[in-house]
Amino acid sequence: MKSEQIQNLIESLSPRMAETKPEAEARVEKAKAYCAEHGKNRMARLIKGDLSGIQMFIYNVNRAEDVDGGAAKRLRGRSFYVSAACLAFSTELLANLDLPTCCRLSWSGGKFLLMVPESDGLADRVWEWKEGIDYWLWGEVWGDLFLNLAISHPYSVDEVDRKYIAISHDLQNQLELGKLRKFESTLSEEIYVAVGAGAAVYHDRVFENNYVEECHSCNHLPRVGESHLEGQKVNLCRICNDHEKIGSFPRLPTHPFVVCRTEATQAEEELWKEKGVKFHDTWIVLCDDPIPPDAERVPAFSPELYQPGEEKRKMAELCDVCTLIPSQRIKGKMNCLDDRLATRFHCLAALANEKQDTKGNKKIAVMAGDMDHLSVVMNAVPGVTLKQAVTLGELIYHFFTVDMIKRLKTYELYLAYSGGDDFVVIGAWDRVVEFAAELSERWEEMLPEGARLTFSAGLQITNPQYPIYEGIDSAQRLLKNAKEEGRNRIDVMGIVMEWERFRKALKEAKWLKDQVRDASVLDGPITIGFLYRMYDIWREYDEKWRKERDPVGLRYISQLTTHIQRNVKDTLGGNEVKAWLQPLLNPSDEKLLPHFRFILDWVVLMKRK
What we know:
The chain is of the alpha+beta class and 609 residues long. The chain folds into 4 domains: 3-188, 2-Layer Sandwich (Alpha-Beta Plaits); 192-297, no CATH class; 311-508, Alpha-Beta Plaits (2-Layer Sandwich), CATH 3.30.70.270; 510-607. 48% of the residues lie in helices and 15% in strands. The protein contains 22 helices and 17 strands. It has helices at 3-13, 20-38, 54-59, 71-96, 122-141, 157-162, 164-179, 202-207, 238-247, 263-269, 311-318, 326-337, 345-350, 374-380, 386-411, 429-446, 468-484, 499-513, 528-546, 555-567, 572-581, 593-607; strands at residues 43-52, 104-108, 111-117, 146-151, 155-156, 192-195, 198-201, 257-262, 276-279, 282-286, 296-297, 364-371, 414-418, 422-428, 455-462, 489-492, 495-498. The strands form 4 sheets. It has a 6-stranded mixed beta sheet. Strands 1, 2, 3, 4 and 5 form a 5-stranded antiparallel beta sheet that branches. Strands 9-10-8-11 form a 4-stranded antiparallel beta sheet. Helix 17 (468-484) links the parallel strand 15 (455-462) and strand 16 (489-492). Helix 1 (3-13) runs parallel beside helix 15, helix 4 (71-96) packs across helix 9 (238-247) and helix 19 packs antiparallel against helix 22 (593-607). The protein is globular and about 85 Å long. The two termini are 50 Å apart.
């Protein structure tokens, strides 16, 4: 890919997100103008921040019965916490350097990029501030999160644009080295952590001497125990309690606008602390209407299960098919009716197959997505300028946050995390599958012809009672497998398909579902039992022939032929089913065999009672 193709890509994405391109370009120009005016000899530096440990930190949330649920709230709270931390750190660093926010070129997920004017002692001030952040992160989350920082050499303002790729390489190398030296200065001293029942020394955490019992959610930090404050759960640590509180903010899932203030400014404006989160010496405060002009948007979304006055829909359509056992269901109804937001995974599962006559399986799905080779595009394409890199990054961030959230509302899905180029979505399994198909199609429609900027995904279907961190971990492994299989693909429960084939397979699955005979399709040419038998025949092909090339596996052909002849009706619809199944009789078929198992799973899940 060349710089001209990057520009074509920017121009192609811009019309769908009209305000993003001019805002990003104006931000770069303002930063360059400020650095040219205030920088020593018109020189400037780029500072890149990268918060590492994000995925492990966010998804380390367990469903513990003795803390009365709340896993979904803690997950949402942690996701917001990480995104807000990145904004807070970048704002605080600029304030520490006495610089305006126009010097922040971008921030998304766990990354930020600053362009600052050169001055005497600049680097020393940056690293001194960074050391304070290291101490704070170590004491706050015991090193689960680490702010990695890189600072470039000074360049003239024009050189920063012209030599951006070389500068970007240097910054990236610094970040990689920094990952190998996490908390290097911090670890050399004894760090006390004021959590739990008192002051716990990290040494005690390692050697289990006089250590407070671990949190029942993250299984890492000490639980607050009997020293808990009002409203805190005794079996959770202070951090998990805080994150559950954050996830419970009524405005957070639907109105995630925040202002970032230093401690002094926050006090002057009398912003409410109960609506904010403190990071080191900086507050992130959730906004009420009217939204201040300097407010930033942090991606977060949870679906509303019902609108005000629609309680009957809630009780009749969702709670009657609730996946909780009876004793939990009573308590679940009480909690859900107090909160219209889908803060519990069993509520999301109840939405599965909601509009069908058959109930289907009440499961949830976790979808993890990530851009392919984005770092190569942003940091290695010759001739790419700073303005192009920032603008493209902002366009991608906008698509996978603001634009994607609009679609999440349609499907009533839950955004667990969005970092701009990677995301995790949770919801009713059939809706997540539909969402994946629409998202991939919309992305491809936006790209210019010949563009090779793609994304991959992994999709895991699971029960709502299954530990959510395990479901997310499985989705992440499937995502990794999709990338290893060639990228621009989705792996659904071990079945890897290119996006176009996946969308085609989903259409075929919907057609096949309408051929299954039941109360809603009285004249269907096949039964659900026919599909169950197909699993055994498929297993013969997949395990013996496809994987081992054992000729015994070719017996599936005769088994399938007999199965079709005996169990598919000789009607117009039956003949269509027979013609559709015909490619399966060819062991080297590339038309239906590769994704047939996905079709089979989808139909059975939709039809199972």
